[in-house]
Design a protein that fits this description.
This protein is about 40% helix and about 15% strand. The protein has 18 helices and 13 strands.
Amino acid sequence: MMAGPYAAALLGDLGADVIKVESPYGDDSRHLGPGVGGERSAFLSLNRSKRGIVLDLRRADAQEVFARLVATADVLITNVREPALSRLALDYDHARRHREDIVWVGVTAFGTTGPYAGRPGIDFLVQGYAGLLALNGEPGGASVRVTVPLVDALTSVLVCTAALAAIHSRSLTGEGQRIDISLLDALVHAQAGGLGSYLVTGEEPPRTGNRSLYFAPSGIYTAKDGKEVVITCPSEKFFEHLCDALDANWSLDARFSTVEARLANSDALDAAIDARCRCFDADELTSRLIAADVLTAPVNTVGEVAQDPQILNNQMIVTIDHGKLGPIAVTGVPIQFHQTPGRVRLPPPMQGEHTRGVLTELGYAPGRIARLVSDGAIAVHGE
């Protein structure tokens, strides 16, 4: 529900004309999450920089429209699994009949072959299969889901990267191609550190909570006002900076004088740091640490993220006018081109908002469009 749509949104941010094809029911994200004015936040957050049309691909007339649309497209991204993929003529072989050099990207949970092929899947399941759940949480505690859908987000970036690489390849060879990307492969790719360690040593990485397996201190500490602050010291330099910032002589203590000693005495070190952090309010604490060049960060709430000065400076929260809701805020473009900057160009489309316009571009006359609407092959917003 996120990986394919968010990849297309990023392509739209970078300048592509993205046309989102939905069924009459609509994208599942239109029915999830908090609602504002009849529109759901889940859909709004993932579908900017697109135009949206509605086709009932179970109908022959809608398939005709889709064929004409694909013939004009550079890339087709699907997130439909078999057997529906082929039944709805969304698979690569069907798409290639409409445009021989199409770049076709199929997003699945587990892959298109093998024992898990065809299964339904989402981010949470993949966290289980790829070991993330086993690694996340406190030592000796229960497994904890990573609540941010990082697997979907990572997959969306891989989809975007693959599409652009395939377009470049086509410019050299004249040939399009089929691309398959799965959430499972994306997370295994991201597990290069932990999984790579196991492949080399045969040892299972332990669950470390907020601590690091390789150095100390590294954790979340509480300030006097109850707010939490991240502090991590991956080298002697940063540990010395921490001692200077907090006016502490921990580096002279034999228990903490080396990385190995600090790891062996992490409980005592964390207790000492936490006690010292409680002498300062969070703002004062982070100011002291930043001034001393310590690796630190506040534990921001989502509301605080939306107001963070660096995030705002980077234009990662932007406002765009929605046809129904007026100004809405969405996340920005994470790739900063200096010659050809991307931008959030269009608001998330209302269901079927651009059906009429897209079909007109494809050469359909008004009367034909009206008949397609009356027959239920297409839908137009507000009609």
